[in-house]
Amino acid sequence: MDKYYELTEDKVVKYVNEKIDFFSDDAVYKCSEIGDGNLNLVFRVKDTKNNKSIIVKQALPYVRAAGDDWPLDIGRGAIENKILKLEYELTDGLVPKVYLFDDEMCCTIMEDLHDYIIMRYGLLNLEIYPNFAEQITDFLVKTLLLTSDVVMEHKEKKNRVKEFINPELCEITEELVYTEPFNIGGRNDMEDFLVDFHKKELVEDDELRLEVAKLKFDFMNNAQALLHGDVHTGSIFVNQKYTKVIDPEFAFYGPMAYDIGALIANLVMNYLSTDARLEDGPAKDRHLNYLLKTMGEVIDLFKVKSLKLWDEVVTDQMAKVPGFKDWYINDVIVNTAGVTGCEMIRRTVGFAHVKDLDGIPDDAKREKTKKQNILLAKEFIKNRHKIVTGKDYIKLVKENRVH
Ligand code: SR1
Ligand code: MG
Question: Which parts of 28-98 fold into alpha helices (H)?
């Protein structure tokens, strides 16, 4: 920690040139801090003369969105660097390329995805991404199945579990996703119109809290696969052709459903947001249909691709027993619906919100949408055993349109 200092737009050029040989001597620099996540600094360093750029991401020793009274281990930078390299190999480049990781400064210097956009903003702009479902399911199936006991030599896998132990970041998820939203207080943050609704629908619903408790302990105890740990649409860069997944600092060995459910939840919230923000008409219909199709495809393609890859890569003798792979993948899908619900709830009443819901400008529509988001999320959690196909997702989400 001795050599660690916080980078600024003024300091980052010197820093980068000390670390890597990337820019030429005649470079004309333009630097901007572009991070809008909750935790880190992210700089784009650009040479405007030769049109070259890179990204520098620095882990801060505290939660950026909260300030320095919420300290956080900067060791997460090393985990992110390790998993980015691993995911790059496993997925054939569905994550950015890392040029250098600096342990002392907790900085990752990586490829600038300048011709991509953060998916959340693209979707809010009504963009559709034709290859997304295909590519993100490649990412999910490869990173999850290939790091599991189904495929890996078991001692090697246990060493990986040890290597990717990530207690501080896991604690954030355990608290912010699985605990605080179902209780009063903590770091919960909700609009006034939700206070009584939250108490009645989430805190006083014992049946719901029991199901969430089961999901929480699955998250903590089921070291199934090496997760990304935070696959919301703000962690995904897209364009019309390609998909790249970024920000895997929450990585650890946990249940596969956590990654798939986080993604689906953010597609559902964009659906509810689009329904609230747009006037009825073809543009709205097109986007809503795209979102439904995409969530259905993510579920169905994940299943089909996992079952197919299973036959090619499985090594465990008992995992080859007929019927086992269907049972295993079905269990992942059941819990995916549960995670979907938890992620939707925490983005409404918890510490970390999403622009999809907070950005609905009309007060009455925002209130109606946030309440509906909570009710739909409860269905996902309580009925998860019955929500197991793309069709089931599409039907449920469609039925819950309120505008
Ligand atoms: C204190 S961190 C809040 C949230 O931001 C990250 O992106 C994770 O989703 C985390 O839960
Ligand atoms: Mg992030």
Answer: 76-91
Helices (H), 314-354: 324-349
Residues with Cβ within 8 Å of 143's Cβ and at least 6 positions away in sequence, in order, are 87, 90, 91, 225, 226, 227, 228, 259
Say yes or no: CB of residue 176 within 6 Å of ligand 1. Answer: yes
**CA separation for the pair 360, 144 (Å, rounded):** 34
Cα 307 to ligand 1 centre (Å): 31
Q: Side chain identity at 400, as an amino acid letter?
A: N
The answer to pTM > 0.85 is yes
Residue with CA at minimum distance from ligand 1 atom 2: 38
Give 243-302 pLDDT, tens digit per residue.
999 999 999 999 999 999 999 999 999 999 999 999 999 999 999 999 999 999 999 999
- Phi, psi dihedrals of residue 280, rounded to the nearest 5°: -60, 145
Backbone dihedral angles phi then psi of residue 63, each to the nearest 5 degrees: -75, 115
Please report, for residues 190, 230, 282, 359, the alpha-carbon distance to residue 131 in angstroms, rounded to integers and kept in the order given. 35, 21, 22, 27
Contact 73, 168 (CB under 8 A): yes
Q: How far is the C-alpha of 114 from the C-alpha of 234, rounded, in Å?
A: 15
Question: Given the CA of residue 262, which atom of ligand 1 is nearest to it?
Answer: 9
Find out whether the beta carbon of 246 lies less than 6 Å from any atom of ligand 1. no
Tens-digit pLDDT profile for residues 78-90: 999 999 999 999 9
Average pLDDT, the chain: 97
* Ligand 1 pocket, mutate which of 42, 166, 168, 172 (most atoms under 8 A from CB): 172
Q: Which residues contact 341 (CB under 8 A, 6 or more apart)?
A: 265, 376, 377, 378, 379, 380, 381, 384
Cα 80 to Cα 99, 100, 251, 308, 355, distances in angstroms: 13, 12, 7, 29, 25
222 Cβ inside 6 Å of ligand 1: no
Residue 283 confidence (pLDDT): 98
Residue 70's SS3 state is strand
Distance in Å, CA 256 to ligand 1 centroid: 18
Closest ligand 1 atom, CA of 63? 1
Q: How far is CA 122 from CA 113, 178, 239, in A?
A: 14, 28, 9
User: Which pair of structure tokens corresponds to residue 15?
Assistant: 């820093």
> Is the Cβ–Cβ distance between 185 and 192 less than 8 Å?
no
> Could you tell me how far CA 374 lies from the centroid of its own chain?
19
Residue whose CA is closest, atom 6 of ligand 1?
38
